[in-house]
Amino acid sequence: MSIEEMHPLFGRVVPEWSSPTPQSTSLPPFLFYVYGGGNDRSALRLIATDFNSNTFQAIKSCQQLEDLRDNIGIGGSWLEFVDYLTTSLKSGDVKLIMDGVLESGGAARARLTAQKAKGMPRILFSLAKLVDGAASEAMANLSLDLYKEFKGVQSSLAEEQESKSHLTKVVASEKEKNATLQKQLDMMLYPRKHKSQKINNKTDSDSTSVMVSQDSPDKHAAPDQNARKGTNRVVPAFRRSKVRGAILDDTEDDG
Q1: Is the pLDDT score of 20 beyond 80?
Q2: Which of 6, 145, 199, 239 has the fewest CB atoms inside 10 Å of its own CB, making it the most exposed?
């Protein structure tokens, strides 16, 4: 990204006096605006204003930015320097130092400093005071560009909300389709489940009937009756007891 392609940066900063004096008065917060100028002679422009009696501006060419880069010791490529510059201006460590108290109560000069992080090189811009028409023009440019930035953010937010709403509708539609498909699937599977349940119930019923039949009292009674019948059987002749007593013989003696 080049300086010319750098996205406009806006920020709020509370000014402070470099050397407070009895004549120095407290100053309201300032807005600062940094943007690419679009040509080599004004590659970078910076405006800081309280929209009252204090408006300051700095214009830096590419060569002056190269010198700034060398002075603060930022190595690497030009793109890395631009990234470091923008990141520093977006950080919370931005200060606006006021110098030279005017009779009107404002400052004659100002310096804006920015540091990416503690311990890293600090960027410094010297700002010149603008008056009359130049100050009004700078404040007008800042206001218009700030409004454009606001509208851009608003448009992006509206698009994001529209996209979110569309996705919500898509998700709801997919859920409804899934519910319908699930219902149809359940209707198709229910007869099979019902038939399978009937088969299982019939099998269980037949098994129960067999078990009941085997455990019937009639089945147990039959062997008992046969056993009783067995006790009345006729004993075979060869097993009968012989009758004891005298045997009479009626044959005549030979003599």
Answers
A1: no
A2: 239
